[in-house]
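Researcher: Here's the sequence for the chain we discussed earlier.
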Amino acid sequence: MLIDSHCHLDAAEFDHDREQVIVQAGVAAMVVPAVERANFSVVRDLAHRHPSLVYALGIHPMYVQRAADEDLDALEQALDDAAGDPQLVAVGEIGLDYFVPESRSGAARERQWRFYEAQLRLARRHDLPVILHVRRSQDDLLKGLRRLPVNGGIAHAFNGSEQQAQSFRALGFCLGFGGAMTYPRALQIRRLASACDAEGMVLETDAPDIAPQWLHQAMRDAGLTAASAQGRALMRNTPAMLPGIAQCLAQLRGVPVDEVIGQCAENTWRVLPRLKRWMASRT
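Model: Thanks. This is the structure I predict for it:
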């Protein structure tokens, strides 16, 4: 049973064919995390229109600089309002991002930290796991989790060291593997995918972003670049890419793809228990 543990189906890239993308995904369940206050109701309403979708509510670290302090109050209210909603499965997408130089400055870093810790507290109060954005911020994220422990969750698009991976695992997190793993030159991610314990991995696309290698190759074969509109269209990632991502993970681990798919589904259910209950209620 394929589960896409991270996809942004509310993104503008899907405005012209969103329903078709969802229906034709061939995926049993998809987790759609919010990124800012403006799309809290968007991801909730989208999930409520499609029984294969569940959602998370949070403020992404790359949106913190344009967020108002009151947006944390709005998130708290949205979580309160959704307390009985079986399709709300986590607080997310939250975390820290130190990739962009401007985000590493004192004020920007401090603001990210404040939003991160505030959202960890909300996850604790609502007894929810978290979906973490992890980009060059692994050690600081771990510090926050040790200070404010939560009910585990998913370290999305993980690209840290094996030691950092083990630290997240010890805190009850699974690691998300997606399109980045499909590139032969992504040596660190591929090593992690090969070495990760079977109970520590989940599948994801991050659609419409992090296109797998074959979409990138198709763009190049067409003589296009990612800067062109046609190139961007060819590079649009969707949940339909998940079988290929699962096949890549299986090859890296030297096991049958059905084994990877089944194990990743079990792992996703374990770290997102509301998802398991929601899927069971539909059968």
